[in-house]
Design brief:
The protein is globular and about 50 Å long. The longest helix is centred in the C-terminal third of the chain and has 17 residues. With 296 residues, the protein is of the alpha/beta class. It has a single domain, classed as TIM Barrel (Alpha-Beta Barrel), CATH 3.20.20. Helix 2 links the parallel strand 2 and strand 3. The chain is built from twelve helices and eight strands.
């Protein structure tokens, strides 16, 4: 399996809701179209940004099917399937494996706090139960456990584990993974928008972005410039948007993302409890960002 197949800017799609709290499938379809038109390289459905933990199985299946229908194989589709139970994750994969998707985003198990041996076994068992590609997802701030560089390196030996989305905020760890996986063509993807410049400049192959829900074209261009080693142009774009990146994470993702998408007329500002719409102070900052950047 070619482990270089994933690169560029991927969007971790939000899930829009109606004022009644139901999934807004029509708006979701339009958002997927908007991503494709604006040059995004691949899509991630049902990630953290998509509030997947608060969606039922029927809603998830419908969102996946809509994505497949709208994308029409123009770009790759990856589906978030991670849970804190290895067997449940495998069970979900078995139900999705016949669908025309490219692979799965699998987060480290949360709450259980497994050891590194447990983490290795978790990903190994999942990879053994599918022929599709696996992107590991390391985000200790949410899961309470860190996938170490050594464990990640060992897991890259498994043929269908092709990448890791790294959101550990540990630059030394991420660079260590990049350095030690360069020879076997494993993809490290930035997991935090404000780290895109440093990580791709250090050898990461792209990003799975939340901010690209709002500015897909700009994030696509920025990623492309970085991957082509046009650092001067990339720096100019990055520093233009860095304050906006930070504003989009003033509260738990996707609270600010949804707030600003509402302000620019893309969605209703509705989240599933226990998440709650952004505080007025956050919205005030986001409105100023819209004005400063002349967004929409």
């Amino acid at each position: 399996m070619n482990k270089s197949i994933i690169f560029g800017c991927g969007t971790a799609l939000i899930t829009p809701f109606t004022k009644k709290g139901e999934v807004d499938y029509i708006t979701y379809s339009n958002l997927v179209i908007r991503q494709i038109i604006n040059g995004i390289d691949f899509l991630v459905v049902l990630g953290t940004t998509g509030e997947s933990a608060c969606l039922n199985f029927e809603e998830k299946i419908k969102l996946i099917k809509i994505t497949i229908d709208v994308v029409e194989k123009k770009i790759p589709i990856y589906v978030g399937v991670g849970s804190n139970c290895t067997y449940d994750t495998i069970k979900i994969i078995k139900k999705l494996d016949n669908m025309p998707i490219d692979g799965y985003l699998v987060v480290t198990p949360y709450y259980n706090k497994p050891t590194q041996v447990g983490l290795y076994n978790h990903f190994q068992m999942i990879a053994e139960n599918t022929q599709k590609s696996i992107i590991m997802y390391n985000i200790p701030a949410r899961t309470g456990v860190n996938l170490s560089a050594d464990t990640c390196i060992k897991l890259t030996e498994i043929k269908n584990i092709i990448a890791i989305k790294e959101a550990s905020n540990n630059y030394i760890q991420v660079v260590d993974i990049i350095k030690r996986t360069n020879a076997n063509n494993f993809a490290v993807l930035a997991g935090n928008d404000n780290e895109i410049l440093s990580l791709i400049a250090s050898g990461a192959r792209g990003i799975i972005s939340a901010v690209s829900n709002v500015i897909p074209q700009e994030m696509s261009i920025l990623t492309n410039k970085l991957l082509k080693n046009d650092i001067k142009t990339a720096q100019k774009i990055f520093y233009q948007y860095i304050d906006f990146f930070n504003s989009c994470f003033l509260e738990t993702n996707p609270i600010p993302i949804k707030a600003i998408m509402h302000e620019i007329g893309l969605i209703e500002n509705i989240l599933r409890t226990p998440l709650y719409p952004a505080h007025k102070d956050t919205i005030s900052i986001l409105k100023q960002d819209i004005k400063n950047l002349n967004l929409f």
